[in-house]
Amino acid sequence: MATHRQTKIPLETQLGLLAMQFRGTRNEARRAEVATAYAQVVRDLIEGGEWEEMPSFEDMLPDDRMPQDFFTYWSIPSPLQKGD
């Protein structure tokens, strides 16, 4: 019996795929699921300690759906935070 090894999709690529799924639906329940999965991939990248390149805008979710961990990690202000 042959064993097939499934290639693991790199985490950075997963962000792009999730962003595409998010943009591909208007179903808010599905968008919430995708945003949750996106946030988990962001946490995995941060915990892995080797996230070296910020994703392109196409690979991001809208500002109001991006996880706060993303902004914290990249040391950029969250567009949703009010200035003093």
Description:
The chain has 84 residues and is mostly helical. The protein has one domain. 48% of the residues lie in helices and 0% in strands. It contains three helices and no strands. Helix 1 runs antiparallel to helix 2 (28-48). The chain is globular, with a radius of gyration of 15 Å. The mean pLDDT is 91.
Quick summary:
With 84 residues, the chain is mainly alpha-helical. It contains three helices and no strands.
- Major sheet characteristics: none
Give the overall silhouette: globular
Classify the beta-strand content into a percent band.
under 5%
Can you count the helices? 3
- Radius of gyration from the alpha-carbon trace, in angstroms: 15 Å
Mean pLDDT: 91
Give helix and strand order, one letter per element, not per position.
Answer: HHH
End-to-end separation:
65 Å
What is the tally of beta strands? 0
Class derived from helix and strand content: mainly alpha
Runs with pLDDT <50, length 5+? Answer: none
Helix content: 40-55%
Number of domains: 1
Give the helices and strands, then pairings.
Elements: H1 11-23, H2 28-48, H3 68-73
Attribute tags:
single chain, 84 residues, mainly alpha
